[in-house]
Amino acid sequence: MIIRQTIIRHGRRIATPRRLPCIRSFASEVDIEAIEASLDRSLKETHSIESLLQNESSEPVPPIEDTTHTTLDYRKDQVAEDFDSIRRQRSLTSRLGTAITPHYTPQALLAHPPAPSEISLPLLLASQSHLGHSTSLWNPLNSRYIFGIRSGIHIISLDITAAHLRRACRVVSGVTERGGLVLFVGTRKGQDRCVVNAAKWAGGCHLFERWTPGSITNGHQILGRCRMQVVDEFDRPIPGLENQLRERPVLKPDLVVCLNPLENWVMLHECGLHGIPTVGIIDTDANPTWVTYPIPANDDSLRCVQLVAGVLGKAGEEGLKRRREKAKRGEVTYQPEKFELKPQEGEMKTGGDEEAIHHAGGSG
């Protein structure tokens, strides 16, 4: 029985045909290293051919890119392409984000200060003109200029500041219209540029260094060697009168604008002795009786000082323009001084007295 089953089992295996696996080989194994080596050799040969053609031909041969094996456009400017890409990105993203509103530019008060007619309370508030000193440092004479107290600091009334600043503008404009000399003084750090610009607009003088004591009371010793000149009604210098100016006293200003009275009290005292009117910025810790025309404001704020100096300079410029316009019509707004025009060497003096009426002005 066992032999029968074994024969049957093995007989089935024998009877079943054996299926042999059919392996078809379409190609032999690929040698990758050999292919890469051949490509490198072909690229080297191509580059060598390009270099030979480049040396022999007048026109440059476009190079071939190593990765794509295509010719490159050597005339294509990468900088221009990047710039065009940036412009496209800006055009797409220009409408995104918030709009930029007008902001404060510090150099605007120096180059383009407001006119006296443009003085307003918001402008004074933005320039920090209302901030005073601590209540423990105040001068009781400034009580009429103080609006109130906040956090232990006196607040200056901007209504009074605007009124006093307009009055000082009228004074400066009137002095320059009548041919007067205005001296702008500011000796603190950062006040030199606004002082120089204000003097340039008003046609006056400036001082941004230490005041030399005795420049007014003892001027013939300190300023005796400073040069003076004679100008006409159009502020044009007149030559030939230098010898007559040597015997004249030292030129003194007709108005002094002081931006920091606390450091220049000696100058203000000399101006008071000689009857020279003064205009000054008076803070809550200063004495308003030191100057003739006080301007209650914050003298520690450079922005406030630049505003006041620029407005006063523009006021002097307006008076200067009015005087020159009247001079064109033949009107003289000041009392001229008489000088004798002496003939120079080699010239003969004609009959009659030659006398010219001009205004004497000078700068040290």
Structure description:
It is built from eleven helices and twelve strands. The N and C termini lie far apart (147 Å). A five-stranded parallel β-sheet has the order 5-4-8-9-10, sandwiched between helices. It has 364 residues and is of the alpha/beta class. Residues 20-28 and 345-364 have low confidence and may be disordered. It has helices at 2-15, 32-56, 78-93, 108-111, 121-126, 158-177, 192-202, 219-222, 242-245, 265-273, 302-328, and strands at 131-134, 146-150, 153-156, 182-185, 205-207, 228-231, 237-238, 255-258, 278-282, 293-296, 337-340, 355-362. Helix 6 (158-177) packs parallel to helix 11 (302-328) and helix 7 (192-202) runs parallel beside helix 11. The chain is elongated, with a radius of gyration of 45 Å.
Short key terms for the protein model shown above:
12 strands, disordered C terminus, 5-stranded parallel sheet, single chain, elongated, alpha/beta, 364 residues, 11 helices
